[in-house]
Amino acid sequence: MKIKYLAATMFLSILAYTGKAQNNKFRPKADLVNLIDKNLKEAAEQYKFLMKHVPADSLPETFEKSGKWKSIPAKNWVSGFYPGTLFYLYQATNDKALYEEGLKRLTVMEPIKYLDSHDIGFMMYCSFGNANNIKPEPSYKDILLTSATTLTKRFNPNVGCTMSWSSKPGEFRVIIDNMMNLELLMWASKTSGDPSFAKMAVSHANTTLKNHFRPDYSSFHLVNYNSGNGQVIRKQTVQGFADESAWARGQGWGLYGFTMMYRETKDPQYLKQATGIANFILNHPNLPTDKVPFWDFNSPGIPNALRDASAGAIYASALIELAGYVDAKEGKKFIAAAETILRSLSSPQFKAAYGDNGGFILKHSVGHLPKGVLIDVPLTYADYYFVEAMLRYKNLGK
Ligand code: GLY
């Protein structure tokens, strides 16, 4: 009886979170669900190991090849993924130690609600947003609304976007990654009843759709606008191999971002965009058969170039959601691709054994190769989207 009750509570709590990305059209495969259950249990143990190595006032970023843990302050863009992953793992396992560690980290995160950063959506929605989905609290709601208001200060109506990177006077730089921060704005409108947050998010998405993409649906990383009249000055791919190349994670941010914006608005142009990006990725001759991409689709050295597990994890999570919005044939293809990615990331090639990898779940991600940082290492966001994708998969059909 107790076990039945526990199972029901765990199911409801998983549904509570991943419910926002529900996909009733497909059923999960039993053997993959078994593998995911095993992964989630192991990931919970792995994070309990990682926990012991994170200083109280900071958040983990990676485990360096030299064997050292690297932590970052709350103002770093990746800060929210660690608490966010802990909350997901708590939902999957009901292990209170994970929840308590997540709550402890929220205290470190709270001052960020005033941080002037385009990444505040990543930081706060993945951390406080997930906490609020488990157990809504008025304080979480206030913190999230304050964070959304902070983000709106970066909006420039001449350009129609929130600014990403600090720019020279007269310029205004926007990266594809910024699509991910729009989820916080959409949530803020729904929660507060104030349409202005959503209006900015839609404007940002429309402007990005118009200027960031090439005819084949691949995207540039960065568009630099004239801040006065919104005209495009330059298009670049700073974190990828070359301006004209398709940086793997950037394609993932676009895929996930436009899928999410379709969920929130039901605007068919976002669905078309997300589907186009998905097909660009899945039909690309340089996508390996295990569907975990090389760090850039046009990287030199393929097939021996580095893989980016973080991009694979983002693709899997987004494809599971997107499959619920397209026709059955296309949806089946997206689910099959997500299944391949989940199985690949579950293999010893990418998934670390207990106690290895500094306690991070996935190996082999690439942060910023051109800058020479975070190359072929574990990264918190790879873990976050892998766990999210597994929960979304388990939740198929519910
Ligand atoms: N948002 C920065 C990155 O994807 O590396």
Describe, in short, the structure shown:
The protein is mainly alpha-helical and 398 residues long. It contains 13 helices and nine strands. The protein has helices at residues 2-18, 30-51, 81-93, 96-109, 120-134, 138-152, 182-192, 196-211, 248-265, 268-282, 309-323, 328-346, 380-394; strands spanning 59-63, 69-72, 155-156, 161-162, 171-175, 222-226, 232-236, 365-368, 373-377.
What would you say this structure looks like, in words?
- By secondary structure, the chain is mainly α.
- The protein has a single domain (2-394), classed as Alpha/alpha barrel (Glycosyltransferase).
- Helices cover 52% and strands 9% of the residues.
- The chain has 13 helices and nine strands.
- Helix 4 packs across helix 5 and helix 7 (182-192) packs antiparallel against helix 8.
- The chain binds glycine.
- The site of glycine has 5 residues, from loops.
The major β-sheet equals: 3 strands, antiparallel
Distance between the termini: 22 Å
Number of discrete domains: 1
Number of helices: 13
Structural class: mainly alpha
User: What is the CATH architecture term?
Assistant: Alpha/alpha barrel
Mean pLDDT: 95
Strand arrangement in the largest pleated sheet: 5-6-7
Q: CATH topology, what is it called?
A: Glycosyltransferase
Rg (C-alpha, Å) = 20 Å
